[in-house]
Amino acid sequence: MPSRVARVASASGLAWIGSLVAAGTALAQEGEAASGLVSGDVAWILTSSAIVLMMTIPGLALFYGGLVRSKNVLSIFMLCFVTAAVVSVTWVLWGYSIAFGTSVGGFFGSPGSHLGLAGVAWEAGADENIPPQLFMVFQLMFAIITPALIVGAIAERMKFSAFLLFVVLWSTFIYSPLCHWVWGDGGWLGGRGALDFAGGTVVHISSGISALVAAIMLGQRNGYGREPMPPHNVPFVLVGAAMLWVGWFGFNAGSALAADGIATVAFVNTNTATGAAVLGWMITEWLGRGKPTAVGAATGAVAGLVAITPAAGFVEPIAAILIGAVAGFLCYQAVALKSRLGYDDSLDVVGVHGVGGTWGALATGLFASTALSDGGLFTGNGGQFVEQVIGVLATYVFCGLGTVVILSILRATVGLRVDGEEEMTGLDLALHAETAYTTGGGFGERPVMPGHSGSEPQSSPERASAPTS
User: Fold this and answer.
1) Could you report the per-residue pLDDT of 388-417, keeping only the tens digit for each?
2) Which of 121-125, 154-158, 323-327 has the weakest average pLDDT?
3) Whole-angstrom Cα distance, residue 330 to residue 338?
4) Which of 23, 223, 289, 345 could form a cystine bridge with 227, CB 3.0-4.6 A?
5) Which residue, among 355, 392, 346, 405, has the nearest Cα to 170 in the 3D structure?
6) Phi, psi of 293 (to 5 degrees)
């Protein structure tokens, strides 16, 4: 038994520790009150930033990697991985400044405003619930995933060097200015009243229309329409789609920039619309093709996530169901139309992100709730729908023409496309001197090992082609 002195000493020690904890808590609360910082908001946006990065690596890499042939899967992972690396540097150096710096006529931020993050504090100001650098890093994750989405349109045939330069140029001259238009202080579209809660215009329409331009300018893959090009790993596709679904809660609910009721609204709408889109795609495919596919269900989920993004914080859950279900139907039809139009959008970026993002932006102008915004067409505010149309059309023109210019410059300098032998060999070996599989390929494909001439086709011609979406 401890002595009475020991017990008293122990009690005194505990009381002293308790007083220190209380004093520390009081000082922290006083510091938060002085700065405006809300620790719960900081924790939520830090978490959201991390899971949005997870959407690109490994989520998007798995989703796209499973859809290509086994000889190209490593190249897909590499493209997604280096996009994250490149934009992580350029965003800090100049991209953030162009997107969120002092406005120049409403069209872009002054590159010198926050060059190298100058003036972007890591502490919150008196009227800020999160530090400016945290907002910067959250926005960085959007800047990373947007050019990475375009990977799906140029898969299996674009030069690695050309893609690296494309990411630098496109993120600098297309993504950052468009981001300023919509979300920057003084941006002209945002100033007009266009609504884009989490990136329907900034992320999905921009990548969708740019993907269409890239697919046309690169041309079809060798054998497209004549040889089967089935997904080589459907479990990859499903796992990638599942990670995108989870990460999208950070994408949409995180865009509230606080752990509050609007974040809750966005979270509920995101999940609800995605479920409705899976059902919409699956039922459409079931009726049209006779069987629902796993790849189709996964792609339907992504279509729903895309479509609800601009509306996530502005609509009620019933509207989210309608937005998601219609997205599943529309995006399925858009993907089916691709083969009739003749362009080779390898992994259906145009049909899912371009069409889904357009529908979501317009649907925001239709269904916006008066409880969460100024309302939309169906709640008596027809002007909001007009602003959404203007935003969509402006994004089409700017991103489409800008991508033509960038790719034309690259084609005239470094070239855009690998040669025929490299494409036949597979980009994993031809561009990176590695193979994803060393003991067996996927879906009947033989792996190409170092030293192989690459002169033989690597796909199995007798296997029926599976739908890529």
Assistant:
1) 999 999 999 999 999 999 999 999 999 999
2) 121-125
3) 13
4) 223
5) 405
6) -105, 155
Amino acid at 96: Y
Q: What is the pLDDT of residues 338-396, one digit of tens each?
A: 989 989 999 999 999 999 999 999 999 999 999 999 999 999 999 999 999 999 999 99
Q: Tokens at residue 45, please?
A: 């946006």
Q: Any idea which residue has 């009150």 for tokens?
A: 33
Average pLDDT, integer, range 259-275: 98
Let me know how long the chain is.
469
Q: List phi, psi (to 5°) of 123.
A: -110, 145
Q: Which two tokens stand for residue 313?
A: 């914080």
